[in-house]
Design brief:
The structure is a single chain. Helices cover about 50% and strands about 10% of the residues. It contains 14 helices and eight strands. The radius of gyration is 26 Å and the shape is elongated. It has an eight-stranded parallel β-barrel with strand order 1-2-3-4-5-6-7-8, surrounded by five helices. It binds phosphoenolpyruvate and manganese (II) ion. Phosphoenolpyruvate binds next to helix 5.
């Protein structure tokens, strides 16, 4: 197991406030927007690092890809006006060089960069001999090894101020999240490398404002000590990630509403273990509910089929057979007869209701 030899975050983080907060717009858009955001964020007295994306990795080439180099001076000006240290995203060695030359206080590596060991190495090499904090977001795909690999590359370049930032993972299908949290992955990272400070990015996990609080709180409940949250003076008009950004004032309220647990190492470990179990339960429940949906969809098809062929809905023989086989399966699976009976009764009732609806469709008597 690699050991990360790091400067403890308490020694270099510019503020004692918890949660540690990196905030600011998704993208630097204009000088006025950057400076106004910085001033209003600073007024909330919650934020330790002011963020702003200068180069934006976008899925499609026609989206806004960041203002580029000229955004650097706007961020410097924002720092000068507010006193907040500044951080931006670097995606190649040239970005690193420009930011180092300009005197950025910290840099982050985005999720689309962490996936590529060549690029991470290029950035690591450009950071040799530099002593600033580097924040490494998880890769877009749920691959813990890739995340660890990126942290190792940056660490081996000599970086001693390192933060791992959890921003969720791409997935196929539907979810309330823009990027699924898959909490077991950051928890696993924390379990293996407790020396690496772990932060959470509720903005990119949620993709929408109304989930930010719950996701941020969950991150803190899992023992994460910092957050990155996107904030914009006019969120609805933001040039990128408009749906997930909040005003600086809302940010200030949200941070004050969060509960930061001051737990000892033991209780963090217990909580993390519990969180892993809960995560497994969530997954199984999600699968069960999907399967039940499929089960009822088949019932609908059967209902239609019975209707076409003039067969009655209730087939007693079939129901008896279902009861018998399922009770046996349940016993093998370690479930009590009472539980499986209650489940089957509920399922049967729903299946009859579904079939009745299908049968009556178009023949409503009411
Ligand atoms: C961002 O922080 O604006 C960003 C692009 O994030 P991610 O790399 O997590 O998608
Ligand atoms: Mn963003």
């Amino acid at each position: 197991m690699t050991h990360f030899d790091l400067d403890p975050i308490q020694q270099w983080w510019p503020s004692d406030a918890l949660p540690r907060l990196i905030a600011g717009p998704c993208s630097v858009e204009t000088r006025e927007q950057m400076i106004a955001t910085a001033e209003r964020v600073a007024a909330t007295k919650t934020t330790a690092y002011l963020r702003g994306g200068i180069w934006k990795p976008r899925t499609r080439p026609d989206s806004f890809e960041g203002v580029g180099e000229k955004g650097i001076s706007w961020m410097l000006e924002a720092r000068e006006k507010t006193g907040l240290p500044i951080i931006t995203e670097v995606a190649n060695a040239q970005h690193v060089e420009l930011c180092l030359k300009a005197g950025f206080d910290a840099l982050w590596i985005g999720a689309r960069t962490t996936v590529n060991p060549f690029t991470v190495q290029e950035i690591a090499t450009a950071l040799k001999g530099v002593d600033i904090p580097i924040v490494v977001k998880n890769p877009v795909n749920p691959d813990l090894q890739l995340w660890i690999g990126a942290l190792e590359r940056i660490h081996r370049a000599g970086i001693k101020k390192l933060v791992a930032l959890h921003r969720g993972f791409s997935f196929h299908g539907t979810s309330i999240y823009r990027n699924k949290p898959m909490w077991e992955i950051p928890i696993s990272l924390q379990a293996q490398f407790p020396e690496i400070p772990l932060f959470c990015d509720p903005s990119h996990i949620s993709g929408r404002r109304d989930l930010l609080f719950a996701v941020g709180q969950k991150g803190l409940d899992l023992g994460m000590s910092g957050l990155m949250i996107e904030s914009h003076i006019t969120p609805d008009e933001a040039w990128s990630d408009a749906k997930q950004q909040i005003t600086p004032e809302r940010l200030g309220e949200l941070i004050k509403e969060l509960v930061v647990r001051h737990s000892n190492a033991d209780s963090v470990q217990i909580e993390n273990q519990l969180a892993l179990f809960r995560e497994q339960i969530d997954k199984v429940d999600e699968e069960i509910i999907h399967l039940l949906g499929q089960r009822i969809a088949i019932n609908k098809q059967i209902g239609l089929y019975k209707k076409e062929h003039h067969i009655t809905i209730l087939q007693l023989e079939r129901w008896k057979e279902i009861l018998q086989t399922r009770t046996e399966w349940a016993e093998q699976a370690g479930l009590t007869p009472a539980f499986i009976k209650a489940y089957l009764d509920a399922l049967h009732a729903e299946s009859i209701r579904t079939q009745t609806r299908v049968m009556n469709d178009g023949h409503s008597t009411t």
